[in-house]
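Entry details:
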Amino acid sequence: MRRELVEDALKPREPRADTARQHPFPHRRRGLKLEQALTDSQNVSAIDDPHACGRAPARRLVIRRHVGMFYLQKFVKIEPTLCRECGTRTVMRYTGRTLIQGWWGLISLLIANPFAIVMNLVALVQARRLPPPQLSSI
């Protein structure tokens, strides 16, 4: 009898339908949806995609944006492959947002925002060094 009890305890059990496994912190799951929506709204639009505009040559650029808040910080980093014009437009858009939203905190003021601006200047130089875009044969 003891052996049967041990074997019963070791058998995998089927989950009951009425007790489906739920996220232990449901408020965090909602936060993920909100964070995903915010990140999606900040992503490069389809027109900035070189396959959408059909132009080449294109290059992978690392573009950053920083939002400083009094107690928090938010970093956004994208790595799209863009042609010269789309890359310049995207870098300028992200740098403009960083210049407006990035200074609101001590660490943001002294370290994070200047870093994001300098790295975006590097990405801008990389984008501007590409030859003028042409229609791709793709």
Summary: Confidence is low (pLDDT under 50) at residues 26-42, 44-51. The helical segments are 2-10, 26-42, 50-53, 84-101, 106-128. The CA atoms of residues 77 and 89 lie 16 Å apart.
